[in-house]
Write a structure and sequence with these properties.
This protein is an alpha+beta fold. It contains five helices and ten strands. The mean pLDDT is 91.
Length: 210
């Protein structure tokens, strides 16, 4: 399992000062070498200038509540959470992952409760990514994974409890909303752990006999 490795990278503001100065200096040296017909120096300065220009590709922006997952030729090298303008190896692939809190509301599903009664049920799940590496590498599409697994957990939970309580201490979907919500949250969380997702809240948003 690939887990997040927080990586610190250079400030983009510092690089924004250094690279233009270096570009101007190498350009001036290249022009002087060319005018003096110093071929060897001209080649060296030309290659150095080319490398400097490639370095401009290393700039990237990290917004608040966002992580950038860095890969070098398919190998995970770390995740950047420092906000602002940053600079890193220009050959790094930089994939953004939102760490913001998000909502998912399932569609209404027809299921049978534990007593066999057909019911319509829907739920709202509040979640966020807490491990950017797991979200990117452990599942194919973590947003789709959250939706499918949340609906599967809701369906499984709905079939485990009756719609209404028939005994004094029996937990039911309608009469025990807090207990049901906590049960649903735990079941969804168990399914989403591998995707680096934390479930903050899960609750039934619609419940009725079909």
């Amino acid at each position: 399992m690939i887990q997040e490795n927080t990586r610190k990278v250079a400030s983009g503001y510092l690089a924004l000062v250094v690279l233009p100065i270096l570009t101007l200096l190498l350009g001036w040296l290249l022009a002087r070498a060319a005018m003096a017909e110093q071929v060897a120096y001209a080649v060296i300065y030309g290659l150095a200038l080319l490398v400097t220009l490639v370095c401009y590709l290393g700039f990237f922006m990290v917004h608040p509540n966002q992580a950038k997952v860095l890969q070098l030729f398919g190998t995970y090298v770390g995740s950047v959470r420092q906000t602002g303008l940053r600079w890193a190896n220009p050959f790094y692939a930089k994939q953004p992952v939102s760490l913001r809190v998000r909502n998912f509301e399932s569609g209404q599903m027809k299921v049978n409760d534990s007593s066999g009664n057909p019911i319509d049920i829907a739920a709202v799940v509040v979640w966020k990514v807490v491990d950017s590496a797991e979200a990117v590498f452990e599942v194919d599409d973590y947003e789709s994974f959250v939706q499918i697994q949340s609906e599967a957990a809701l369906r499984n939970m709905a079939t485990s409890y009756p719609y209404e309580a028939h005994g004094g201490e029996e937990v039911a979907l309608r009469s025990h909303p807090q207990a049901i919500a906590e049960k649903l949250r735990k079941e969804v969380q168990d399914r989403l752990d591998r995707a680096g997702v934390e479930v903050l809240e899960a609750r039934i948003s619609h419940l009725a006999y079909a």
